[in-house]
Here is the input.
Amino acid sequence: AELHPSSSSRKFKGRVVFQGNRVVDQNYDAAIFQDLGSAPATMEASKLADFYGCVPGHVVEIADAVQAYIQAKLQGTPTYVCLPPEARPSWWAKSFPNRRRPVCRLLRALYGHPDAGTYWEQKCDEHVKSIGFKAVRSEWPSVYFHPRLRLFLVVYVDDFKLAGPAANIKEGWSLIKKGLEIEPPERLDATGKVYLGCKQRLEPIRLPSG
Here is the structure.
């Protein structure tokens, strides 16, 4: 909203979320979730990807996952939600005429659920490892390297940054898209793309002659 109206990055989005402040169990006591916790990549990992992408013949590209959390199935204790009236299917009124607040089971890791981010992270981790990416270190979560393609991947929640040889970058994205829905990737170049809220621009360094 703070960007100039002519900016291509200026857009407004709506999102359906799990209202976590009104969650109870079958006895109407406050519900307790697993609270697994997620571990996104660090800013240092993002900068290392930038460095790797500056190697001659290498590039850096970024892409966002489409509605990331709900790509993962919700696991753990079964959770049921009450949809607001405007979101209920029209046939509910005929099928449940005497039910004031019908509920349905939550099947996807909806935004707002305490464990939604963790289940998305697990799905993402399992997929990228299945296509050949290897975790770099346990101390660096959500950071991977593909030995054959020599691609360095950093994942921060739903933001993907892929760096490596320009000849292999397309195949890397194709592998990722086999199990995850990803928006078309964009190259970090002189136009200054945004990653983690930071505007980045890659420029060649002119060394002094002699």
About this structure: The two ends are 48 Å apart (CA to CA). The chain has a mean pLDDT of 85. The beta strands are 58-64, 80-81, 104-105, 134-137, 140-146, 151-156, 159-165, 186-187, 193-195, 198-200.
